[in-house]
Amino acid sequence: MDDDSDGDTAWAMSENLDLVRSIYAASERGEHLPTGWAHPEIAFAIADGPEPSRRTGLGHAEDAWRDFVSPWKQFRPEVEECRELDNGRIRLVAN
Description:
By secondary structure, the chain is α+β, with helices and mostly antiparallel strands. It has 2 helices and 4 strands, in the order αββαββ.
């Protein structure tokens, strides 16, 4: 008998990974803040830089991102790593 539960989990994680990759592909083109995909209570962290921060909520995440990219005329992140973790979480490292 075939158990679909593992397949469902793999599919959901794959969807999450595809979503994160599409968001950063847009950002690499200079299209920042495409928030239609974000949960209203999104957890957002800037781990390094002059003002590291951790924010919760869509409005706070938008403000944090806007503040972070404002010093640059054209900000284009480059993804170094994007991989699936557990529980549908995605780890993304960019510079």
